[in-house]
Amino acid sequence: MFPLFINFRFPPRLVLAAVVGSVSVLLAGLFVYEVFAQPLPTAHSTAPAAAPAGTVYLSPSAQAAAAPQTTAPLIEVHIANNGLTYIRGAHVVSISGSTIRTEVTLGAGTFVWSIETSYNTQFYAQSGAKIALSDITPGDYLTVTGKLSSAGDSPTVSADIIRN
């Protein structure tokens, strides 16, 4: 009769080399797959469907579910040691002359900023086109780059660039 199990003895270095080689080939294949894999097309849209005209909702949750979802702007505040300031997602509260009063809400805290503009301040729309201070209205969200100039009632930034 033939033995059902044959006991082969391999040197430990050879076994280790075979395991490391197999794992390396597996990881390389996974990497190549991730780099060159094409996403599958989806059969349905993820956009919410608009409610037909004359629709009456019986509960606020049904109305909220049918309303298009808007995303909050990205909020960032950076102040360097030398006073250079970058504020993203600043909500315009009011405009008085060349001063824009903005708020940045992070969680339960609200930070109020005064943005001072001058003839050197450059204004840009979201598309990158040049605009003027008069094109900015309360309710807009701004990205401001400038220098922290004082800390009175609220921190004041002398703006170099403002993007609407």
List the helices and strands and how they pair.
Layout: H1 12-36, H2 60-66, E1 76-79, E2 84-96, E3 99-106, E4 109-116, E5 122-124, E6 141-151, E7 155-163
Parallel strand pairs: 4-7, 5-7
Antiparallel strand pairs: 1-2, 2-3, 2-6, 3-4, 6-7
Key features of this structure:
164 residues; alpha+beta; OB fold (Dihydrolipoamide Acetyltransferase, E2P); five-stranded mixed beta barrel; 34% strand
Structure description:
With 164 residues, this protein is an alpha+beta fold. It has a domain at 76-163: Nucleic acid-binding proteins (OB fold (Dihydrolipoamide Acetyltransferase, E2P), Beta Barrel), CATH 2.40.50. The N and C termini lie far apart (86 Å). Helix content is 20%, strand content 34%. Strands 2-3-4-7-6 form a five-stranded mixed beta barrel. It contains two helices and seven strands; from the N terminus they run ααβββββββ. A hairpin with a 2-residue loop joins strand 3 (99-106) and strand 4 (109-116). The protein has helices at residues 12-36, 60-66, and strands at 76-79, 84-96, 99-106, 109-116, 122-124, 141-151, 155-163. The mean pLDDT is 80. The radius of gyration is 30 Å and the shape is elongated.
